[in-house]
Amino acid sequence: MIKVNCFAHLKELAGGNMIQIDRKEMSVKELLEEVQRQYHIQSDSVLVAINEEYALPDDQVTEHDTVALIPPVSGG
Questions:
Q1: Which of 2, 4, 21, 45 has the most Cβ atoms closer than 10 angstroms to its Cβ?
Q2: pLDDT of residue 76
Q3: Closest of 39, 43, 40, 33 to residue 69, by C-alpha
Q4: Phi (first) and psi of residue 15, to 5 degrees
Q5: What is d(CA 31, CA 2) in angstroms, rounded to the nearest whole number?
Q6: CATH of the domain spanning 2-70
Q7: How far is CA 69 from the centre of its chain?
Q8: How far apart are CA 71 and CA 64, in angstroms?
């Protein structure tokens, strides 16, 4: 099971601060597609971090990784 931490307004969309996906391994692209399908989170503006480093769509996520969804942030 892949556990995904959610931050900011994504927690509200996901119904909590963690999403669980019943897979042992998948690409970041597949993870974003699944999150969009299950939780209606628009993946085009969300960044994914694996083990505290930003990930690319082809990077692999496993059930042993620390995964986070990070929404766009603005500030001044």
A1: 4
A2: 58
A3: 43
A4: 80, 20
A5: 9
A6: 3.10.20.30
A7: 4
A8: 23
Domain ranges of the chain: 2-70
Query: pLDDT tens per residue, the chain (76 residues)?
Result: 999 999 999 999 899 999 999 999 999 999 999 999 999 988 888 999 999 999 999 999 999 999 999 998 766 5
Residue type, 57: P
Q: Tell me which residue has tokens 């969300």.
A: 46
Q: How many CA atoms lie within 13 A of 75 on its CB side?
A: 2
Do residues 10 and 43 make contact, with C-beta atoms less than 8 angstroms apart?
no
Looking at 7-59, which runs of residues are DSSP E strands? 18-21, 25-27, 47-50, 53-54
Please give the Cα distance from 22 to 74 (Å, whole number): 33
